[in-house]
Amino acid sequence: MFFVNKLINARQYILNYRANKTIRDVQWSFLSLATSSLANLLLRMVLGKDLGPSGLGTYTLVFTIYLFGMQFAAFGFGAALTNYIATYKNEIYKTKEYISSGVIGSIISGTIIGILLYSSSEFISTNFFHIPEMVALLKITAICFPFIAIQKATTGTLNGFRKMNYFAMVNIFQNTCIFLISVFLVLFLKMGVRGAVIGFVVPTIVIGVFSLLFIRKSFFLPSKAVLSRVLKEITWFGFYVVLANSVGMINTQIDSLLVGRFMSETDVGYYATAVIIMQGITLLPSAVQTVTTPAMATYYGNREYSNIKKLVKSTMLKIFVIELIFLIFLTLFGKYIIMILFSEEFAPAYVPMLILSIGYILYAPWMSVGTIFACIGKVNLSFKLNGLCAILNTTLNLLFIPKFGLIGAASATTLSLIITFVINLHYIKKYTM
């Protein structure tokens, strides 16, 4: 009986430890996400006030291209390493093979994307956006892509080992450095948009190199056979991750890029202001998703389908109520918020912001449980639906922006978000209710 009690106590201790670790991991993830969002908001406020709508618009276009390039530079190796390390974490030598090959592959893919952006910077700037001053800015941006890829491989490794404290530290340190260096270069050295771009390029390079310290004990030069085998495996995995992430980027960034294509950089600055404020709507559901994802996966694994249904209903309803209050607040005080955070010069952002908020208030509840299809074994369905919505979003923006300007961009995005919500809600009911 004594040994039975000891076994029961030991089992309970393990369960409590795992539960506490999950809570700590969620807290670190939320802290990382909140820091990123806050740093981005504060930086855009500073840049908006100092550079005006035109400067903020140019910066936004460059930074958006940076975000798109990041997806291809890392080529999903970070996500692949998270998956394979979590699977083989008890096989030390095998994890070292994945880590070493992943870092080498990341350097190669990041270098290729950097060269492509550097060589095409003139075409993108002058032929597509008609902003010649972007040429030099994109060339500066291209330099950091190999280091982005290294960082993604490192954070993917840390995530696989569930070292979320280190994972968060890397992201928090990077976002803090970007904010501080950018503010120093723009406000004190008066370097304008170039200073703002250098402000995110330099920390990206430094953090990319620094992050390798976290995995230095797991790195070695693999043989050609090992490198070829592992790279082939993680490249195929990463390919699908890149496709999914690219679709997600299109859904969230295509409107800003097409405003830059059909309108001026000043209009991009106005629109960027409205989008930045929308981050306040998406922050909470994004954080909640880090909690609902493992919960839904666990319920599905235990065949507790009724609990998935309850969790989805409860979460979406609560998020909707909170976002509705936020919408009312924006309607009443949104114009004053824009003028206080930025300046009166950004007042044209108010109407697009209100239009966007209507779409996001419905989309936010979906975001809080947005990984449900992956959790219930319907990954392909999630990719197909997101791809369909990305095509719809792009098409609507192409039709509306040339005719209706910023109102058209906001309306197209809002309409696509509403349709996305309705389609996903239909399939949620089909598979869980």
Can you tell me about this structure?
- The chain is mainly alpha-helical.
- The chain has 2 domains: 19-262, no CATH class; 264-433, no CATH class.
- It has 13 helices and no strands.
- The chain has helices at 2-74, 77-88, 92-128, 134-142, 145-160, 164-188, 192-211, 224-262, 265-301, 305-341, 350-368, 372-375, 379-432.
- The radius of gyration is 22 Å and the shape is globular.
- The two termini are 45 Å apart.
- Mean pLDDT is 85; it is low at 10-18.
Order of helices and strands: HHHHHHHHHHHHH
Q: Distance between termini?
A: 45 Å
Q: Biggest sheet: strands, sense, closure?
A: none
Number of domains: 2
Low-confidence stretches: 10-18
Q: For the residues shown, what is the average pLDDT?
A: 85
What proportion of the residues is helical, as a percent range?
A: over 70%
The 3D shape can be described as globular
How much of the sequence is in beta strands?
Answer: under 5%
Number of helices: 13
What is the radius of gyration computed over CA atoms, rounded to a whole number of angstroms?
22 Å
Which labels suit this protein?
433 residues; mainly alpha; 2 domains; 0% strand
Précis, in short:
The protein folds into two domains: 19-262, no CATH class; 264-433, no CATH class. It contains 13 helices and no strands. The protein has helices spanning 2-74, 77-88, 92-128, 134-142, 145-160, 164-188, 192-211, 224-262, 265-301, 305-341, 350-368, 372-375, 379-432.
